[in-house]
Design goal:
By secondary structure, the chain is an alpha/beta fold. The protein is 24% helix and 28% strand. A five-stranded mixed sheet has the order 3-2-1-4-5, sandwiched between helices.
Length: 225
Amino acid sequence: MATILHIETATKNCSVSVADKGELLAIQELNDGNYSHAEKLHPFIQQVMEEVKLSFNDIDAVAVSKGPGSYTGLRIGVSAAKGLCFAFDKPLISIETLQSLAYKVSMEEGVIIPMLDARRMEVYAAVYNSKHERVRDIKAEIIDENSFQEYLLKGKVYFLGDGAEKCKEVITHENAVFIDGEFPSAKEMVKLSFDKYKKNDIEDVAYFEPFYLKDFVVTSERKKL
């Protein structure tokens, strides 16, 4: 058995799934345009466990989306995952958020560039090949008309994620393909987590932290004169 609980909270999509040996058994998710993780995450976890008629003692690992993404969303998801691992003595598996998002695209040629919104014209992005292998590191970058030209000149480039929408008017190359409405989901985590489980590629629960990519900065409101 390799029954794994998956938690995805890196964006506005609050998503939880259970899978066994890489096969999806149950999923609950909500993306209503708001960050509802604090209210929805734990009920979703309970619902998927009840749907598959398993207790937390029955699962073999907990997988969590590690980032980058929303600071608050990642913190909520990782805290929940670590809490379950501590409480039930389960291993923790971390999944790159952008890689699982890339798995929403299937193609034979070109590259996939999943993007997460990082405010204004900045995105968190990485580049994956047709086998969903990362061929360029994850970066926080400001998008302009020259972004990703080295890939666009060679063939089709598939952009997706909540950061891609604002890039449509800037990246206008004929090889650019924009896929709308896609967010990271606990569904695409299933294959990745099973591969890691088989390799015993797990995290140190006590010391694991989300991959924020950028420091979280709190700014105070300026006083009105």
